[in-house]
Design goal:
Three copies of one chain form a homotrimer. Chain A is 30% helix and 39% strand. By secondary structure, chain A is of the alpha+beta class. Chain A has one domain: Alpha-Beta Plaits (2-Layer Sandwich), CATH 3.30.70.120. At the A-B interface, β1, β2, β3, α2 and β4 of A face α1, β2 and α3 of B. Chains A, B, C: Pfam families: CutA1 (PF03091).
């Protein structure tokens, strides 16, 4: 079963750096850097806003926990927003590709 | 358990306005305004297209239904596309941050 | 129950073409072309990068498998990344709109 992780970064460099490490550790098969996002948030009771870089990582359900935890370690923030979910449908070619990350190697 | 909501808006102002209300009502912790999306759709049997503003809201599974319903009320469209889903994985820091929205306060 | 599919394309034309066919076959109700994404990936053991066009398709859980498989057929790549998931929350208006794709017609 394939899986996705959404995670915004402060800039492209940190996004690319994390993506390359996760690829090297075979925890994701691909990162899609979506580009600039306008973030509006509440932090310690204060309303704030910032420009961040949104990223979607394609991975497999079998390594989703490990990939999310590792992304949390690699991320420049102390409290990153790393949000992963399992997918319910994918054509065989996608499943086989991403299955290469899990035990279906 | 964290959760995400995807919802496109007609413009940034309505997206920001809804985000600020949902933040104030502690139904989301952050909104990421992804920027312009090209929408192609079928409406009342007619093919149409429009430029909209895509937004991802970060929230918690315990308030996901309430946040989605409230977003439906706040949205300028009579039939908005508000699509929320629970996530399966997140590092502890993300869980604790978003847990602040639910009973894990 | 509503559902989403994320799928990047090599260009806007192929994205629009697939969207229009899926709309015509009532397998999706709307496509949001998110725009350019920077993709970093591993393919046959080689690290690579490319500019692609990210797309989110809004559909219904009852046709999610069919829509994902059909998207896999329509996609220009032999191994496309087609990743679909069921949503857990949506206001009534969204459910009724997307329900029109499934048996809730």
């Amino acid at each position: 079963m394939s899986a996705l992780i959404y995670c915004p970064f402060p800039d492209r460099e940190s996004a690319r750096s994390a993506a390359n490490i996760l690829l090297g550790e075979r925890l994701v098969a691909c990162a899609n850097i979506l580009g600039e996002v306008e973030s509006i948030f509440e932090w310690n009771g204060e309303r704030g806003s910032a420009t961040e870089i949104g990223v979607l990582f394609k991975t497999h359900a079998e390594v989703l926990d490990k990939a999310s935890a590792r992304l949390g370690e690699l991320h420049p923030y102390d409290t990153p927003a790393v949000m992963g979910w399992c997918c319910d449908a994918a054509p065989q070619a996608t499943r086989e590709w991403l299955g290469g990350l899990g035990s279906e190697k």
